[in-house]
Amino acid sequence: MDEMASLHGLLGGVLIGLSAVWLMGALGRIAGISGIIGGLITQRPKGDSAWRMAFLAGLISGPLLVMAVGGGLGNVAGVPGAVIGEPAGGVPLMLFAGLLVGLGTGLGSGCTSGHGVCGLARLAPRSMAATVTFLVVAIATVYVSRHVIGGGV
Amino acid sequence: MSGMTDPARVLGFLDITGAWDPTLIFVLGAAVGTTFVGYRLVFARGTPLFSTKFQLPTKQELDAKLLGGAALFGVGWGLSGYCPGPAIASVGGLTLPLLALLAAMVLGWWIAQRLTR
Fold this sequence. Notes:
The complex is a heterodimer. Chain A is mainly alpha-helical. Helices cover 70% and strands 0% of the residues of chain A. Helices cover 63% and strands 0% of the residues of chain B. Chain B is globular and about 45 Å long.
């Protein structure tokens, strides 16, 4: 096991948690990225967009800040210090996958942050069911694409 | 820092029968643990600092939309290694495949919103 990767994962996870706690403590909102950004783009809710824009700006600038600071804080597998990894497939696969991610998180009201972090922390039954579902399906998808079809993505 | 912006790590975590990468267990565990404790402290205050109330989902039932949506998301996540947050956070290292994923994701959100309205 890669202890350094695990330690970075642990620290990164704490930071994700602190961000979710801050958003709830300050504005009373769930830190669900598909809901915050999806809502911003598809609905542009009047008077409810500024904090979403700020969250988006923070989300994009965070990794850039880590890169600017340097010091090997990134956690890309096999590339010590790198912050942002390469996509695992080409444009056609990413178009298909992206459509499913958008459709799925839109219909299912959440992704790994809203259901997986905030929902589990609230012990919300819907989030627990959603998290188990997307985890199991994602594991099955990787199994099929890597070990059944072979060659992988 | 967590490794979530690296699709190879995410897919390595989901690949439980291959060379399993446990990193994301630590990410998820630490994030949920921190939020679990932090939420309790925050809720104990009664109201948020800059807002009048906490806006929490009240729905309880496990319907087809929730589970079907989660399953579709699982396929997309398993194929790409991107969930929405890390995909958006990776904009600083934009590549053509990532741009394609982001554009398709926004289209997916838009369709979902149309379907449920």
